[in-house]
Write a structure and sequence with these properties.
With 97 residues, the protein is an all-alpha fold. It is built from 1 helix and no strands. It has one helix spanning 14-96. It is rod-shaped.
């Protein structure tokens, strides 16, 4: 067995191996950047929707406040009417006595 020929297994060039690793790392970085852009876009859209919702809530609260002011004004009128009616009733009772 001394006359056997050993054929070396082909190896990769270390520079090519480093280049492949760099390409893989750069591809991973590009994927991460794309995902980051997508996430930022989704976040901006969510913030815009939140702004629209908050504006709607502000409008609803303003309408509610206006309604409460209207109720308060009507109650004030009723209070005056009831005071006048009470004064009239007191006058009628005083005349009968």
């Amino acid at each position: 067995m001394t006359d056997a020929i050993i054929i070396p297994f082909p190896g990769r060039d270390p520079a090519a191996l480093s280049q492949d690793r760099l390409q893989t790392a750069l591809a991973g970085l590009q994927t991460a950047l794309d995902e980051q852009r997508r996430a930022l876009s989704d976040w901006r859209f969510a913030m815009a929707e939140l702004g629209v919702g908050m504006a709607g809530l502000g409008h609803a609260l303003t309408c509610y406040q206006d309604g409460l002011v209207s109720v308060e004004e009507r109650l004030g009128g009723l209070r005056q009417s009831s005071a006048a009616l009470e004064a009239w009733a007191d006058g009628v009772l005083a005349q009968e006595a």
